[in-house]
Design a protein that fits this description.
eight-stranded parallel sheet; homotetramer; 9% strand; alpha/beta; 397 residues
Chain lengths: 397, 397, 397, 397
């Protein structure tokens, strides 16, 4: 079979420096791999066909670097970008590693911690913008509680909003061309985390000062941990015009945050997601926020990166086949799939008169018991449709 | 010990007719109890100290009743309300029982189903308003998918919004004093349900035509099924000004929808929830959407109802003791709990200048390594605080 | 692509009468399909290439049938079997539908209920044996609790064991050639069910009077509800010599019991399971205990049945390709996969002397730090291997 | 209220050195607390009323210590034990921290790793026995897979059994008075872990060479992660005579391994567990395998330890009140709770004749429809009983 799944920059695949660079520390074990030099990462990913990289401030410029050191690091890193044509479409802040953030960052009880977190973020925004980032991700990994008594959750949301507003105000003042993307997660490392799902983030955004500057960065693993459908969550983000960025990886529901190679778990969910991204006109990055298994040495790291991208391309190809498959088209028709695009209220649901008129019409129809019986007993052929999709995925049609 | 946990109407406890009336059907078993007459329910609940009842259209007026039958039923029911002083603060529609809704109601692929669902809802709104309802709950139990291929989720959200808009338009045209409350649920009976969490509903509402008319009706069991914190979800709803109603019951995470007696599982979550409701100034109903165990006969049903209310009152009393406990106050101070109410950015987070000034100040402070070290090494005394709460809950302080 | 995935009797596919016959009742909705005549089921499944059917006593002979009615039903059913060549390899008892079992069956608190459950089971064993069953499944769906206070769990296990022992004693006395298979489930319809996983059943069996007569009937959905690996659970059952039967379907972790079409969720788990069954020499039935979506009419029911079998055959074909793929073989070698078959203790782990000698040898080797360093830094190439499997599953290799 | 919840040595409370000594590393953050000197730990815990401590080999004697260093450490540690009267009832091996174990220990694919793991365990057994341990725990945290293709699970169980057998052979040869306790866990740090639940371990043990030497060490968090009832799992272990040790902590279902302070989550489960331990005659340790929140400094660590023990004692007191409460006794009678202790088959379930005779008797009784109707419609009063327990737990009765 001819293999056409070769990643190229126009596919807009990006990786966090921390993903391939993950040394394999977990709650029960120490590092199994040496740190990666960000410059090497840029070159290796460029060779594999990626479009760019992203980073937390500390991934690139270690905490405590002097201004001179920072300058040297940035210069060297930029040279790697220039040499390879790689981009930095997104940047973010590490507000979770240092013990100072153990009780929270933007929502810490201690105002000094919150202020430090905000100042660190502003510095990191500068760094990201300097390297070309147009999206700034905020993952509030420490924004949460184990002990509900200790933090008023409504005040915590006030503080969270205040921090996001402050970053927006700063970006506006500086004239940066930067949008923010909130990354939800339900738990881990905190017992419960604020803004646990895409939905909670979408609701939160609408209460901000400049909601248009803020969208979401849904992560496959994070929604899936809660057993929610990632595909449907991303669809709602797109529906709301808020899909600014996305984190691709793999996860089993109800388990620790696994961040496995994209497609290695939940292949059907991954397929519907890729189909949605490809068909929705989403123009953002296909960003992998995953890490190699702890069993891997350095060469496994690059197998991991290659696998993430290949699986995406394979699934995108399946999505095209889905659209072109006449038997699937027939099954979709049997399921009345096109009907969902038809207005329910002819004349418009915001007109009370049109709504009342529709009711009258339905009453007349439903007066004939056969009408309702026919609607109730019709089949939708979903078993056949689903099996067709399964066989498409399995490559036997 | 003097028992002061006697429910009274001013506590605003309400029950769905379908809760005490649940006959005990489950996926593997048939009914174990006889249907309850709604009039008996009103009298029994009034005797127990409840404030009112709620219903689905079909709970009160069986589907297919003639106008004359409907009138007789309503008259008899209203007489029971009048005799007891019981209220109907909320009503809702059954859009899930009849086979016509097997593929969805407001988001069914077939436009005829959607129109029927809408017409049924308008009739049910009339019934609810006629009996005094001021909140109308929408639980979209059939709005979802097992086969993602069969339904465009963004179009489904369009249709969902259209239906809610249509109901709002109708209510406005009629001049009803009625607000809507969307009830999220992640799954069951569908594989995945649209608007799976409080957050998703909050985000959705903001894209409606009249967002002020629509809030949420969070349910303990539904959020907990996904392992999310119900307490934090309700807090976000309150923060957004959207807690229009609430459904109280009990549930274990990661299991089927259990709808157990309030407080029978997750007592700590229940405590924090009651504390939040009592302290937030929430003036709505304390509505129980639960059902008795299938092991119960008729007398167990009323034990169940009594238990729901008693547990709420016991926990409300604990919340008052929490607020008055000097050792807890001391532990809260050690955890800097009051600090969450302090503005992070003096002068206002929406001012770029104030934000930049704050960063300068933090940079100066953080230049001294001892400053950060002190912040990083301080303790918050959360173990002590949490243990105090535990002992308060266990009644040993 | 030539389609070689046609089910035939030698594949040993069987279906419960209750699976294709499921009318679509769920906790929120009534039946959507008419009951199926068991005789029609036998004919339809035979046409599709199945090997046989299974049943609960009540599926075939409705409760309350007179001896004459029973005889007529059995005769007519047997005629359908004879006409089609279909077999009844397994039978079971319905100990969950009738209200008498609401508090349990073999572990009900009330001894009269337990005795009734046992008598019903003995009758059902007679019926199963009469129709040729060689495996008798026991699913204890009502054996559990919501209220832990109400039942001593150790005594409940005594009663459970007593019931299984009694059935074995009966079978031995009658000289039936019948083995029992316990089917674990963690919860639903009870809050918690005894013997919640394959493991708990395996442990329980060893405390029975005739452990050799009793094995397990693992179900994909039931293990997966708890987030456990079905593949690993079945492997342990095989390892213990206890895989007497198996129930195939599909399920998302942490959700209600879904019983979807085999392979429609968790396709990777399904693949490893099929690979294990095919490679282990398992000679039992491939039994589908699933049901069609509620969206289906009668024609969808048979699409469902066909899909279950086709997916199994597709995956069995993938397993053969896996075994024959040279690049996968190479990756397995890189992962030292064959090493797991080598004895750890040369000379035998049950010899204290051999064990001590091994320690001496390891101490000598580990005295050289390079030895441990080499072991610690080697890679296993799991990312590459897993990606190869993924691409095999997706049909692109 | 007089406080009688003071821990004393006769309560048999023990803590792992690694529990209070946990420095607060998590997947997203570095250490927040300094390491604790084991000698200090012994003294502090003795002051708090504990009975003893447990350890992994490396907790006490850092890897790479010379024999002389080991001797000095042991001598100093023993002096602390002697000075305080503290015991070491249990010891275990760290087979998860070092990178050499990244692909497994007893079930690693590479035989050299397995042999190293076994040798390390034998050394650790010597250390444990030297300090008085009578129970040796085996937690196979790295025994599992992310990539199912890479490891034959049946062979892995062979290797697992071989390792346990080897340890038993060694202990027998040395004449140690030591029993083994397997500690199950479903996942984390591996994607799936072998022997994921108490049940799987119980089944596994029966296939070992010396099953009497091996029992289980169930952990509250580990069973609860899978949503299983810890109380029922421990009950089955007791029923099988296999509860050799127990790990107490707290956990929310479906989340990462939280290891919170005992009783801080799931208080009802904790109550039933304590009731079971106290009433079953279990004479082993009440061992806490938990760690303080990451928000805590050194003083929070000791609050944590104190809280674990106090909550146990509070719940033990509740269990005594439960047994003495006349209203609870009445509710238990209404639920026929004593009936579970009655034999189902008079004359013995292992007699085919007695079983058949029972069936005849039931048939006769069931011939009267009123008999079955009465059994089916009786209530069990579980709502009342459960509410009584809830109010007992909440301290209002």
């Amino acid at each position: 079979m001819a293999d056409t799944f070769e990643p190229r920059p126009e596919h807009h695949f990006t990786f966090g420096l921390w993903t391939v660079g993950n040394p394999g520390i977990d709650p029960f074990g120490v590092a199994v791999r040496e740190p990666l030099d960000p410059v090497e990462t840029v070159h290796r990913l460029a060779d594999l066909g990626a479009y760019g990289v992203s980073f937390h401030d500390d991934d690139l410029v270690p905490a405590g670097s002097s201004p001179t050191e920072r300058e040297a690091i940035v210069k060297r890193f930029r040279a790697a970008l220039d040499a390879t044509g790689m981009k930095v479409p997104m940047a973010t802040t590490n507000l979770f590693r240092h013990p100072v953030f153990k009780e929270g960052a933007f929502t810490a009880n201690d105002p000094a911690v919150r202020r430090y977190a905000l100042a660190k973020t502003l510095d990191a925004i500068d760094l990201g913008v300097e390297l070309g980032a147009e999206v700034y991700v905020m993952w509030g990994g420490r924004e949460g509680v184990e002990v509900d008594a200790a933090k008023d959750p409504r005040a915590a949301l006030d503080r969270y909003a205040e921090a996001v507003n402050a970053c927006c105000a700063y970006v506006r003042e500086r004239g940066y061309r930067l949008r923010f993307a909130l990354e939800p997660k339900p738990n881990e490392p905190r017992g419960d985390i604020f803004l646990p799902t895409v939905g909670h983030a979408l609701g939160f955004i609408e209460r901000l000062e400049w909601p248009d500057m803020v969208g979401v960065n849904p992560e496959f693993a994070h929604e899936t941990m809660s057993g929610l459908s990632f595909h449907l969550g991303v669809a709602q983000a797109l529906w709301a015009g808020k899909l600014f960025h996305i984190d691709l990886n793999a996860q089993r529901p109800g388990k620790f945050d696994q961040d496995f190679r994209f497609g290695s778990e939940g292949i059907r969910d991954a397929f519907y997601l890729v189909k949605l991204l490809e068909e929705s006109g989403y123009t953002g990055m296909r960003h992998f926020d995953a890490h190699p298994y702890r069993t891997e040495d350095a060469s496994g790291v690059w197998d991991f990166a290659r696998g993430c991208m290949r699986t995406y391309l394979i699934l995108a190809d399946k999505a095209r086949r889905f659209a072109a498959d006449p038997e699937i088209a027939e099954a979709l028709a049997a399921a009345s799939a096109a009907g969902i695009h038809e207005e329910t209220v002819p004349g418009g649901a915001t007109s009370g008169a049109a709504v009342s008129a529709l009711r009258d019409r339905v009453r007349a129809e439903a007066a004939d018991p056969a009408w309702l019986h026919a609607l109730a007993t019709r089949g939708y052929g979903m078993e056949r449709l689903d099996q067709l999709v399964n066989e498409l995925l399995l490559g036997v049609r």
